[in-house]
Amino acid sequence: MKHRISFLLLTGIFLLCAGCAAYGAVQEEPASLQFFSMDTVMTVNAYGPSGEDGVQAARDAVNRLDGLLSRTDPDSQISQLNAHAGDGTAVPVDPDTAELLSFAQSVSQLLPGDFDVTIAPVMDAWGFTTEARHVPSAEELSAALALVDGSQLEVDADNATARLLQSGMEVDLGAVAKGFAAGKAEEALREAGVERATIDLGGNVTVIGTRPDGNPWRVAVKDPQNTESYLCVLELEDVTLSTSGGYERYFEEDGVRYHHIIDPKTGYPADSGLQSVTVVTANHVLADALSTALFVAGEEEAIDFWRGREDIELVLCTDDNRVVVTEGLEEVFQLYDPDGGYTYEIARR
Ligand code: AMP
Ligand code: MG
Q1: Mind listing the pLDDT tens digit for each residue in 91-141?
Q2: Rounded to the nearest whole angstrom, what is the distance from the C-alpha of residue 49 to the centroid of ligand 2?
Q3: What is the position in ligand 1's atom list of the atom closest to the CA of 104?
Q4: Does any domain span residue 96?
Q5: CATH of the domain at 105
Q6: Domains identified in the chain, total number
Q7: Cα 277 from chain centre
């Protein structure tokens, strides 16, 4: 197994192995660009004569969205939207911002109680936006929760404006921005003429085409209990995957660990019996949204949700160390280390 490590793309971490092209007899080196955007180290590798142009276009596309969507940049459109909460202003936004806001709102409706794009005040109450992380008081938390209501966000896609109806409300696109950016990065690569590439936006990995030798890409999902190692490996082509887990961002207080994926029903970090959720699909932003939402939802609701759709596949890692893999991935899935303490089972329709 060891020799395979250098071939893996790693979801949920920022480093995409430099050796992705260096396996076996394959000689071709990709154009490779690593950059920091959306608070994450990102890596794009692209093969072929357009590779160099492609990786730069992909980076530019991601950076442009970071400028529009960041909640911590006071000049971003999201900051402007948040600053005008409750004052009646319909804030003009880029069509991309409007599209993402509408999409995020539709996810709130699809999985109510699991996902809410106006979760920002709760993120702030926990100090996740700053470095001053702490357990909020009950009063602080209930005041923050009172401001969480995705239905109080109005998006006018035709006129490209958005408005928050209640003062103090704030939008946080942290659950979907990287997936949206991954879609735009893929578009930029394809427009440049790239047919084989990997895009690693930290937790969101997209593979375009096959490896240069014609074989599928091997994408590794991090082990949520040991982020130096991996849970499983998936062999994939032309697809995107997103992993959400409590291990990505957390702090400890009085020996208890608190992570950054919030259950909007309680205002507390989701405790649904899952360690991580990976969503595999062709739709980048959907993958990102659902990995977050289904992490909150838990195993049963996630599998029920999967049964209702044809366009997604899942890998769930449960608190009791089972890896639940939906049947569409059966042929392409393997546990990274069969003796690593995890068992796996296939969920069927
Ligand atoms: P991800 O890493 O894609 O799972 O997204 C986690 C981020 O999404 C957090 O850092 C928050 O910015 C945001 N978030 C946390 N909980 C939720 C939720 N229940 N619904 C929507 N966004 C959330
Ligand atoms: Mg997400």
Answers
A1: 999 999 999 999 999 999 999 999 999 999 999 999 998 879 999 999 999
A2: 33
A3: 21
A4: yes
A5: 1.10.3980.10
A6: 1
A7: 10
